[in-house]
Amino acid sequence: MRRHWRFWAGFAAAIVLIAGVVSYFASSSPDGLDSATLQGCQVVATDHGEQLTGQCIAQHATEHPLSVSPLADYTVFGHAGSVGAAGIIGAVVVLALAGGAFWLLARSRRSGS
Fold first, then answer.
1. 42 sits in which H/E element
2. Domain residue spans in the chain?
């Protein structure tokens, strides 16, 4: 039993290291899809935010309904310095959901046997 706890403690430390520290080194440049949809346009800064000029696919894009969610844009409530915290929170939520699903599956298999 003690061996399992060492494994999970090491696993948790790796998650914190990767999600909390390495995420600060992620590129903020647009990915391939963003670049492709912006071809033919220029992004111009205005008083009301950024605006696209020219002809491109991105001109028809709208804000996603979840763009105001707490972890949108890989930040916590839009705070620029919270990339690591958002990574850790996201990793913990995914692990909790996956762990819960696996626990339910294992439990149903035990009771179904």
1. strand 41-46
2. 1-27+70-112, 31-61
